[in-house]
Amino acid sequence: MSSIPDLSRAVWVKSSYSNGDGGDCVEWAPAVARSGGVPVRDSKVPHGPALVFPSASWSSFVDDVKTGRLAD
C-alpha cells in the first residue's frame, strides 16, 4: 500500500468472531477496505492505533481462521 488511509471518518464494524463479553473485540472498516487495505483496530481502544493490512494478506488470514488452521 502506498499511502496511509484517512480513518478519521471510517465506520467501524465489530468482527463476527468477537465475543460478547467485552473481550477479543476486533473491528474493521469495510468501506475503507475497498481501497486496497483492510484497517483493523481494538474496539476497546477506539482512539488508539489501527493496523492496515494488504487485502490479500487479510483474506488469507481470515481463511485460515475459518478453517481452524490458527486454532490453539
From TrEMBL:
Q: Which residues form the DUF397 domain?
A: 10-66
Task: Give one Pfam hit by family name.
Answer: DUF397
Name by which UniProt lists this protein: DUF397 domain-containing protein
- The source's superkingdom equals Bacteria
